[in-house]
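Handout, section B. The chain below has 195 residues.
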Amino acid sequence: MEKKKVVKVEEIKKAAEEKRCPVQKAAYYIEEFLKGPMCGRCFPCAFGSYEAGVRLRNIIEGSGKEEDIFALRRITEDMIVASLCKRGKDSAEFVHEWMETDAFKEHVEGRCPDIDCPAFIEYIIIPEKCTMCGLCKEVCKYNAVLGEKKVKYKTGYLPFEVRQKRCVKCGDCIDVCPTGAIIVTESRKKEGVKV
């Protein structure tokens, strides 16, 4: 019988710290804590962690509200006081620390200050930098890149662009672009610009 590897809270914290966005850090930490080190023996930790994960997911996906921030603050404060073990208290403190930044409020207002959360960003191709090599279109598994590869002695090409509704923000196109023509920018949806 294969033994299940025990993940330590310190390992989860270290991996969470590598994320840029404070909300992403908190969400990653809570999701991993629920998968592994949480024992589920005390109600404040078990229920609080699950509810915090739901609230954090709402905020990251762009459907978060002020009530989610208020609920997260209450949940983490309750967990710090009422959790029976150090793991539960440490988890709540980790999330609570990141709530002191303005990032949570900005997410609720429709913006990720670190330009990291997929709900608040777009991938854009800068036409002046694009050589029309077509590598981005070839690598995109989601058919989110539209355009025509440049062929000698022909004109009237359809320029390359990212179709935002199909783009999952995986970053594959950025990785293969030889000229750095694809950039990540804040979403234009919040400004009322049709995409």
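Note. Residues 66 and 108 are 7 Å apart (CA to CA). Compare this with the example in section A.
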